[in-house]
Amino acid sequence: MRRCLRTVWTGLLVLSMGLVAEAADQHAAVTPVPRQDAGWVQRNQAFNERVKQGNVDLVFIGDSITQAWENNGKEVWEKYYHHRKAINLGIGGDRTQHVLWRLANGNLEGISPKAAVLMIGTNNANKDDHTAEQIADGITAIVKLLQERRPKTRILILGIFPRGEQPNPEREKNAKASELASKLADGKMVHYMDIGVHFLKPDQTLPKEIMPDFVHLTPRGYEIWAIAIEGKLRELLGEKP
Which of 23, 139, 150, 172 gets the highest tally of CB atoms within 10 A of its CB? Predict the structure, then answer.
């Protein structure tokens, strides 16, 4: 009887440990969730209506840094991406979990783009909100969802852009998360580029003429972004050099 009880208790302990481990794996950065603020809801609905129309070869996915292609990056977007049937799926304030929810709930409906440019995670890095490993998990979850839903779409993961005038914990966290996410690249359907060095001075400081608030880009910053990925983007879109 004691052996039986010991076996039962051992089994329960193993089961409980497994459940705890599974719960730990399902942290916030990988748990799809929508936001409730009116601006987010309205913009997300606009995305869903746009993609239903089809005719999309290229998508940019991200947060406010991506959304601002429509503002500070507008002229650069017109120069590099408008003729490529590109759409902007960036929403200010988004984290990996919000992007996951959007992509699973309408942002990909009706389209099968040739390429997707993904740059997300800096909002997850605020203070102690998420670890670098958790941010990388969130990026991984997004890439896997894209691969499952749109297997013919080539994905370009961008390293999270540097933030803060000087090197700081959030910047270091983003760099580590990006390094972990870079392992997803297979050189075929998933590619990785870290273009952060193009924004920095030799002493690793961020100049205000590129990022005035040390997070968001000026028109010059968007030009740097576009030039840095142009060669790879041509490759992913199947364009001639």
Answer: 139
Regarding whether 109 and 201 lie in a shared domain, the answer is yes
Q: pLDDT, tens digit, for every residue of 73-119? A: 999 999 999 999 999 999 999 999 999 999 999 999 999 999 999 99
- Of the candidates 27, 63, 64, 203, the residue annotated as catalytic is 64
* 103 and 11 share one domain: no
> Residue 213 catalytic?
yes
What pairs with residue 157 in β-bridges? 118, 192
Domain identity same for 11 and 40: no
Question: For residue 209, what are the domain limits?
Answer: 31-237
Quick one: 3 and 83 in the same domain? no
115 and 190, same domain (yes or no): yes
pLDDT tens digits for range 10-19 = 443 334 334 3
Other C-beta atoms lying within 10 Å of the C-beta of residue 55: 10
Q: How many CB atoms lie within 10 A of CB 18?
A: 10
Tell me if residue 216 is catalytic: yes
57 is catalytic: no
Q: Which residue has the tokens 């010059």?
A: 220
Cα→Cα distances 33→21, 94, 96, Å: 21, 10, 9
How far is residue 59 CA from its own chain's centroid?
12
H/E segment holding residue 117: strand 115-119
Q: How far apart are CA 219 and CA 224, in angstroms?
A: 9
22 and 36 fall within a common domain: no
